């Protein structure tokens, strides 16, 4: 045996010995960077720290969130702040993705490079959706995605982590939860889930496998609690299908069904009913078409051959033979339903006897625009049908009975609710306490707060890493800073005030009286005094910031002039009007 081999052998023995007393030699940090106290931006890091300082990190889900439209002008997405991970990107050895919803995959194009582009592990449909979306980001690096198959549960290793997974029901096919075995302890993460014993288009959640895994002992159960305040079991698919079928039975004209593009379960139900009631299907809306195309290609949609038709071909059929499935249930700007309502759609406008289904609950903040959309459609002759029952959350996430069942089946030592708002976490706490789980074994964390697992304990620490919102413009042009956001808000609410100053470089004097243009602020004609005063201030600023070399050659400090116009005018306008428009100084030197 060579010395090298001996060393290797020794190293292995040391490794083995270490494993025996592992819990003292490792600490596992669980760091939620998003997804708590909100619905969206799901991203959790699991950082294994060895006593010798070595680290290994895996990540679960890389999602985006949607801004609350009132406060975030023109921002399309919010994503997690991954500053903490960026500094350790060479330690990241893999990303696990639970399912294909954007609150779990949507931030990949924005963050994957910052995370060092590690390999991704997920199911085939989720992989298809990630890759399809990636086409919109040609400059993003090529992804390495490893498929894990739902019916062939092969455990795999990522460094010191041993990963297993199990099938759960959700409102998109191919959803899984993960069982992560670490040298410190075992963690089960449910992903978004519900338990459905009689799903129509999917297999029931794999309870026997979940129980089998639980036999190995679960130290920490991270459980989706989005819907936990709802009593009882999740409304079954069949119930929703019955309700939808009722509409199909009664509708005399076309059916226009709006829903979320990601709600493949609902889309499947609609396509199934179309087949049953002899309707052809038009899929409308960019993301909706993408999702349906990927699901079709990978065999995740069941449909009759020839059922899909192009929009223009729908006019060759009698209206009662047509189903249009489209986006716009939240009255999203530019969505198919909005374009139909505002007569901007290339093919469709409302015709008599159209039934328009809103098949998802209203996201808080959208009430008013959805109401307006419904009115606009109704005025044009559409019949509006809105079922709260078809709520995206009510149908996609576990209710309190499901959570009770899950906790009973898995008997975890510690429970950490994930995915949703604070009041929902408290609901999980109540459920768990009622089942006999001690209060101190329920971990209620917030974004950025480090949870530590070591020895046989799980502890919520006061250590924090940055976890603020990061804003993204949908164009993918980069992140929007707080400042830009403030400007946009001011522009929208307070208007704009442009001061155009033309300075003669020969004399250093103003060419003529400063020009003032304002939008959405004051009617200029009615505020002559205000404007005159503003002009005076500008003149003074220019005079103060122009020095003369040898009494003749003017040196114009353009930056100072701009700065003072912005600041001084802004303060002046606020004093006079109690409003703060965006002040834009334009200095032209001639
Ligand atoms: Zn989901
Ligand atoms: Zn989710």
Overview of this structure, please?
- The protein is an alpha/beta fold.
- Helices cover 32% and strands 24% of the residues.
- It contains 18 helices and 27 strands.
- The protein has an eight-stranded mixed beta sheet with strand order 7-6-5-3-2-1-19-20. A six-stranded mixed beta sheet has the order 8-9-10-11-12-18, covered by helices on one side.
- The longest helix has 20 residues, at 558-577.
- Bound molecules: zinc ion (2 copies).
- One zinc ion (ZN) binds next to helix 4.
Q: How are the strands of the biggest sheet laid out side by side?
A: 7-6-5-3-2-1-19-20
Q: Determine the fraction of residues in helical runs and give it as a percent range.
A: 25-40%
How would a textbook summarize the main sheet?
8 strands, mixed
* Radius of gyration, taken over Cα atoms and rounded to an integer in Å: 29 Å
- Characterize the quaternary organization of these chains: single chain
User: What general form does the structure show?
Assistant: globular
Characterize this entry briefly.
This protein is of the alpha/beta class and 590 residues long. It contains 18 helices and 27 strands. The strands form six sheets. An eight-stranded mixed β-sheet has the order 7-6-5-3-2-1-19-20. The protein has a six-stranded mixed β-sheet with strand order 8-9-10-11-12-18, with helices on one face.
Sequence-ordered SSE layout with sheet pairings:
Blueprint: H1 3-20, H2 22-25, E1 26-34, E2 43-50, E3 55-60, E4 77-80, H3 83-86, E5 92-96, H4 102-105, H5 108-111, E6 120-122, H6 124-134, E7 145-147, E8 156-158, E9 161-167, E10 176-181, E11 186-189, H7 207-215, E12 220-224, H8 237-250, E13 255-258, H9 264-276, E14 280-284, H10 286-297, E15 322-326, H11 336-341, E16 355-358, H12 367-379, E17 383-386, H13 392-396, H14 400-410, E18 414-418, H15 422-434, E19 449-454, E20 457-464, E21 469-472, E22 479-480, H16 482-494, E23 496-503, E24 515-519, H17 528-544, E25 546-549, E26 553-556, H18 558-577, E27 582-589
Parallel strand pairs: 3-5, 5-6, 6-7, 11-12, 12-18, 13-15, 13-16, 14-15, 16-17, 23-27
Antiparallel strand pairs: 1-2, 1-19, 2-3, 4-21, 8-9, 9-10, 10-11, 19-20, 21-22, 23-24, 25-26
Helix pairs in contact: 6-10, 8-9, 14-15, 17-18
């Amino acid at each position: 045996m060579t010395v090298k081999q001996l060393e290797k052998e020794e190293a292995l023995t040391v490794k083995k010995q270490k494993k025996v007393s592992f819990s003292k030699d490792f600490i596992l940090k669980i760091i939620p960077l998003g997804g708590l106290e909100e619905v969206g931006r799901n991203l959790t890091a699991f950082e294994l720290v060895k006593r010798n300082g070595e680290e290994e990190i895996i990540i679960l889900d890389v999602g985006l969130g949607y801004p609350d439209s009132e406060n975030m002008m023109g921002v399309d997405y919010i994503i997690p702040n991954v500053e903490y991970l960026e500094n350790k990107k060479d330690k990241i050895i893999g990303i696990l993705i639970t399912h294909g919803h954007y609150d779990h995959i949507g931030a990949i194009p924005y963050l994957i490079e910052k995370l060092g582009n590690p390999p991704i592990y997920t199911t085939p449909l989720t992989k298809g959706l990630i890759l399809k979306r990636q086409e919109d980001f040609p400059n993003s690096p090529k992804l390495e995605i490893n498929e894990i198959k739902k019916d062939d549960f092969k455990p795999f290793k990522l460094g010191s982590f041993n990963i297993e997974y199990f099938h759960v029901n959700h409102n998109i096919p191919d959803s899984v939860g993960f069982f992560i075995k670490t040298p410190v302890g075992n963690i089960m993460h449910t992903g978004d889930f519900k338990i459905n014993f009689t799903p129509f288009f999917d297999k029931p959640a794999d309870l026997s496998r979940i129980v089998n895994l639980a036999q190995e002992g679960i130290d920490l159960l991270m459980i989706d609690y989005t819907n936990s305040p709802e009593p009882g079991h999740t409304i079954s698919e069949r119930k929703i299908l019955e309700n939808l079928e009722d509409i199909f039975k009664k509708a005399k004209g076309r059916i226009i069904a709006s829903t979320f593009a990601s709600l493949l379960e609902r889309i499947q139900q609609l396509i199934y009913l179309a087949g049953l009631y002899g309707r052809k299907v038009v899929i409308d809306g960019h993301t909706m078409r993408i999702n349906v195309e990927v699901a079709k290609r990978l065999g995740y949609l069941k449909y009759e051959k020839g059922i899909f038709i192009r929009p223009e071909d729908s006019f060759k059929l009698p209206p009662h033979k047509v189903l249009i499935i489209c986006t716009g249930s939240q009255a999203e700007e530019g969505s198919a339903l909005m374009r139909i309502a505002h007569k901007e759609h290339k093919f469709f406008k409302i015709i008599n006897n159209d039934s328009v289904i809103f098949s998802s609950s209203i996201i808080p903040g959208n009430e008013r625009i959805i109401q307006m959309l419904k009115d606009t459609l109704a005025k044009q002759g559409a019949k509006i049908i809105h079922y709260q029952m078809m709520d995206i959350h009510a149908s996609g996430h576990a209710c309190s009975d499901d959570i009770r069942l899950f906790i009973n089946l898995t008997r975890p030592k510690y429970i950490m609710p994930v995915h949703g708002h604070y009041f929902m976490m408290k609901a999980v706490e109540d459920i768990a306490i009622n089942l006999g789980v001690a209060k101190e074994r329920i971990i209620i964390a917030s974004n950025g707060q480090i949870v530590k697992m070591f020895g046989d304990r799980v502890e919520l620490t006061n250590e924090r890493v940055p976890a603020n919102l990061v804003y993204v413009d949908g164009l993918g042009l980069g992140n929007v800073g707080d400042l830009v956001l403030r400007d946009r808000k001011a522009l929208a609410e307070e208007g704009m005030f442009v001061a155009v100053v033309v300075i003669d470089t020969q004399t250093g004097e103003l060419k003529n009286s400063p020009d003032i243009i304002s939008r959405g602020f004051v009617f200029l004609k009615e505020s002559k005094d205000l404007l005159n005063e503003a002009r005076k201030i500008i003149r003074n600023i220019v005079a103060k910031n122009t020095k003369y070399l040898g009494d003749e050659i003017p040196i114009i400090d353009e930056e100072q002039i701009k700065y003072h116009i912005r600041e001084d005018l802004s303060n002046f306008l606020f004093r006079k009007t109690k409003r703060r428009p965006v002040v834009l100084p334009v200095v032209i030197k001639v």
